[in-house]
Structure formats: C-alpha cells, structure tokens
Amino acid sequence: xxxxxxxxxxxxxxxxxxxxxxxxxxxxxxxxxxxxxxxxxxxxxxxxxxxxxxxxxxxxxxxxxxxxxxxxxxxxxxxxxxxxxxxxxxxxxxxxxxxxxxxxxxxxxxxxxxxxxxxxxxxxxxxxxxxxxxxxxxxxxxxxxxxxxxxxxxxxxxxxxxxxxxxxxxxxxxxxxxxxxxxxxxxxxxxxxxxxxxxxxxxxxxxxxxxxxxxxxxxxxxxxxxxxxxxx
Length: 232
Description:
The protein has helices at residues 8-22, 28-33, 55-65, 94-124, 143-152, 170-176, 179-190, 210-220; strands at 39-45, 50-51, 70-73, 80-81, 86-93, 165-168, 198-201.
C-alpha cells in the first residue's frame, strides 16, 4: 500500500480555518475556569477498530495554538487499529489541551473514518484487478486531506482538480452535441501547446441504445471502451 505524501500546506490552511471558525484564542470557558499554570498529559485513543489517518494534523493544530505542547504520535497513518489503541499522547498546558481538543478530534475522526471505510472497500475487492478510486465529492476546503485519507485506507486518488484530467460525463456530452462532438472538441483543446493531459469518459449505455454509442465512439476515439454487458 502506497500512502500519498501528506498535504502539509493544505493541512496548515485547513487547521487555520478551523481554529478561526472556533475562535480558539477566545475560549472564554477555558480561560475563565482553568488556571494558567497546570501542565497536563492527555491521550487520544480509539473506541472501535479502524485505520489511522491524519496524525500529522495533530502536530499542525498545536503548532498553531501552543507550540510548547509535546505531541507524541504512537501509530503511523495507514495502520489498522483495535478498539482502545492510543494514537497520540499530549503533554502541555491544560488550557491549551482543552482548547484544541475538539479541533484535533474533528480532523482525526473524519480522516480515520474515511480511511476505515476505504479499507473496507479495498478488502472487498482483494484478489481482483479492481482498484478503489475516490472522486471530487469532498468537503469544501478539505479535499487534499480527504483524498490523503483515501490512500491511507489503501485506495487511490483519481483527479485532484478539474485541471488534472478530462472527464466527459453526460452533461458535457449533451451540451457539446453528442459523444463525437465532445471528444473532437477535447482533442482540439489538447492539441494546443502544453495542454496534453489524461482523458476518460463516463458512459451509461443503459440510457441509450448500445450500438449508436459504439458507432460514435469507434469513429471518434482510438481508446478501447468497455461497459458492463446486460444479463438479459
């Protein structure tokens, strides 16, 4: 299993946005109820089995809230976890630990959850040529982290952005005037300087007779196109 490089820059921006949203610097409950001096130690553990993902985010949260907090990660991303496993041990100002706790947990719960669900699909197709790919249906502002978590679960990233590759879907084909018109237009765009890229197409032949689709595709593209054969 190959885990993607951790998106440190995206994590930095996402953490900053989360802390600003929470107004962590103005945590009046903690500031007014917890003395400034006490040092505490806290552990983050699992309540159920899963797959670890997003541990570097914990370091980033405390780098932005209190750099004096010691963060000790006890597992690596991609590791399968049992209920009760300790992921992280934290030592530092009690105020800082309490203030940042929810932000840390929000990231870890989401990313470990994505990795765990992905791992389930990966295990389901184990032993076959199938690969588990992700989509762009991610939470706004968290795409890089969400897609990283997919790889921690053994999945593969498809396209990270709209600029990464051409992906023709029904709406493009309809607006372009058909499969042939859409593919020819894409080929024209790809012929421009520095515009070569990967391309693929989503086809749903059940919505249209298969033979016209095949004729159009055969006349406009050299790619081998496959779709499920109807079992009637």
